[in-house]
Structure to design on (59 residues):
């Protein structure tokens, strides 16, 4: 398993089918996303688009 580059917590791997829906036919229509479980971690700051804004995170 990998660790968060911001706080060192072990990352959780989640299955997001909706993120892979635009892939060509025949390819896996799912995406695995690693997420830090630490709610205080800078990597968990959401942006307006719902993504992670790493530009505001401090390492």
């Amino acid at each position: 398993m990998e660790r968060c580059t911001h706080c060192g917590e072990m990352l959780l791997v989640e299955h997001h089918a909706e993120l892979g829906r635009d892939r060509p036919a025949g390819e896996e229509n799912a995406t695995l996303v690693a997420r830090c479980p630490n709610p205080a971690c800078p990597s968990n700051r959401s942006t307006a688009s719902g993504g992670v804004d790493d530009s505001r995170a401090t390492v």
Observations:
- The CA atoms of residues 19 and 31 lie 6 Å apart.
- The chain has no helices and two strands.
